[in-house]
Write a structure and sequence with these properties.
This protein is an alpha/beta fold. The chain has one domain: NAD(P)-binding Rossmann-like Domain (Rossmann fold, 3-Layer(aba) Sandwich), CATH 3.40.50.720. It contains 6 helices and 7 strands.
Length: about 250
């Protein structure tokens, strides 16, 4: 029960890592503002008094102001912001259109910046030693062909996290990243063909594709007081994917 009397905002909360994070925070006592474009799936067993469903597109320039107003009215504070919302556009580098590029950046990077700014304003004004956790990807450091806009946003997100951490540290606010590897979500499921799954299991040292709950555990750790002395960090949750330089099925003699 690390989050009793805490107010948390989770974006991308309708499914995948966002849903798992919001569920974990609720289970540990938080009041949760679950943000997504729409809420398609029911929340069985959720405490209605501590769960606020917020329908916002994080890419909308008006979204940060709308969320900030909602938080001020309904809670008066915010302790945790988990920026989980993200989109993936698959296309060869030579075929990516300007509209596709702009949309991925708007959700994965610009939206994170301005939502974090809105939450941090409230944290600073209320003297709250808050926690901001951004969700990057193993593909910030490992190439992913046909996903240039996505990888660009994740690399940018990690750099931005360090700058945010530096600026907000004097206010006692920590800013960190989680860097997931292969994770089964609504977004990733269409690309996880049997062939891709076999390749991933061969590549990942621990040999598994993560359920969203494993990543949510890391997010909640960084969002908790247990991580009070960690800021500007990026935690790999990838089964060893990024660190492994071995050749599957072979070895040097």
């Amino acid at each position: 029960m690390r989050f009793v009397n805490k107010v948390a905002v989770v974006t991308g909360a309708d499914s995948g890592i966002g849903r798992a994070t919001a569920t974990r925070l609720l289970a540990e006592g938080a009041t949760v503002f679950a943000v997504d474009v729409t809420h398609r799936d029911p929340w069985p067993g959720a405490d209605a008094g501590r769960l606020h469903l917020v329908e916002l597109d994080v890419a909308d320039p008006a979204a940060p102001g709308q969320l900030e107003a909602r938080l001020r009215t309904a809670a008066g504070r915010v302790d945790v912001l988990a920026n989980v919302a993200g989109i993936l556009h698959i296309a060869p580098f030579l075929e990516v259109g300007r509209g596709d590029w702009d949309r991925v950046l708007a959700v994965n990077l610009t939206g994170v910046f301005f939502l974090s700014q809105a939450a941090a304003r409230i944290m600073v004004e209320t003297g709250t030693a808050g926690r901001i956790v951004n969700v990057s990807s193993v593909h910030a450091v490992v190439s992913e062909p046909n996903a240039a806009p996505y990888t660009a946003t994740k690399g940018g997100l990690e750099a931005m996290t360090r700058t945010m951490a530096s600026e907000l540290a004097p206010h006692g606010i920590t800013v960190n990243c989680v860097r997931p590897g292969a994770t089964r979500t609504r977004m990733s499921e269409p690309i996880y063909t049997p062939e891709i799954v076999r390749s991933l299991r061969a590549k990942i040292p621990l040999g598994k594709i993560a359920p969203p709950e494993w990543v949510a555990s890391a997010i909640c750790y960084l969002a908790s007081d247990e991580a009070c002395y960690t800021t500007g960090a990026c935690l790999d949750v990838d089964g060893g994917y990024a660190m492994d330089g071995s050749l599957p099925g072979t070895a040097y003699s």
